[in-house]
Amino acid sequence: MQGNGRFITFEGPDGAGKTTQIKKLAAYLKEKEKPFLLTREPGGTRISDAIRSLILHPGHTEMMKETEVLLYAASRAQHVREKIIPALEKGVIVLCDRFVDASIAYQGYGLEIGVQKILEINDFATGGLTPDRSYLLDISPEQAQKRLIARSGETLDRIEQKGIEYHKQVRYGFLELYKQHRDRILLLDGHQSEEAIFSLIKKDFESI
Ligand SMILES: Nc1ncnc2c1ncn2[C@@H]1O[C@H](COP(=O)(O)OP(=O)(O)O)[C@@H](O)[C@H]1O
Ligand SMILES: Cc1cn([C@H]2C[C@H](O)[C@@H](COP(=O)(O)OP(=O)(O)O)O2)c(=O)[nH]c1=O
């Protein structure tokens, strides 16, 4: 860990409820007057947000998987150095919607690039920064798809548009990560109610 802050990430397939839960934890910290930073990947800085638009653009169908991996890592490198580490050094609690685990699940497993390659690239990108705690929301691809279509009837981005097989592979990747990092990752069943999930997160957060 860097500095005195705590680095907390939220992970899981699209539609699992990460954004909902991270906002609840942020509201809880605000109420307790604890300094926190709410951020997300890809994004979080001006440069990282520009990279996000490049990656998720629905028209960029010709994007090579190697390009995709490096763009996520480039976005992360900027985010870690410009925003996350300075906040941790000031003792701020950093809540981040997705981090390296997402690259392992989506690109390592989903795009079949392999975990080792993703780890090498991301180790360079992050300088070895690892979350203190990660909340992994698990959900079936079928349920996730229903939620995404219901969510404001928005158009699905380039990743969300990929088929159900890709998303099954991503979910499998996240569950494999959990098996290897039980000390860092708390697995939560995303099919439960928002309140039930948050009470588990709150209880865990208070204990770390
Ligand atoms: N536990 C839950 N049960 C039912 N619907 C949920 C739950 N959590 C989130 N949702 C809804 O599902 C959709 C996706 O949730 P969101 O938090 O945006 O997921 P993510 O950030 O993981 O993609 C939203 O419309 C949200 O209101
Ligand atoms: C951070 C990251 C995200 N992604 C993907 C997952 C999402 O489909 C997309 C955008 O993430 P996100 O903004 O979390 O989308 P959502 O709120 O719908 O869950 O980027 C990767 O494939 N690799 C990564 O390293």
UniProtKB/TrEMBL annotation:
GO terms for biological process: dTDP biosynthetic process; dTTP biosynthetic process; dUDP biosynthetic process. The keyword Transferase applies. It comes from the Bacteria. Keywords: ATP-binding, Kinase, Nucleotide biosynthesis, Nucleotide-binding, Transferase. GO terms for molecular function: ATP binding; dTMP kinase activity. PANTHER family: THYMIDYLATE KINASE (PTHR10344), UMP-CMP KINASE 2, MITOCHONDRIAL (PTHR10344:SF4). This is Thymidylate kinase. Belongs to the thymidylate kinase family. InterPro entries: P-loop_NTPase (IPR027417), Thymidylate_kin-like_dom (IPR039430), Thymidylate_kinase (IPR018094). Its EC number is 2.7.4.9. Phosphorylation of dTMP to form dTDP in both de novo and salvage pathways of dTTP synthesis. Residues 10-200 form the Thymidylate kinase-like domain. The gene is tmk. It catalyses: dTMP + ATP = dTDP + ADP. ATP binds at residues 12-19. GO terms for cellular component: cytosol.
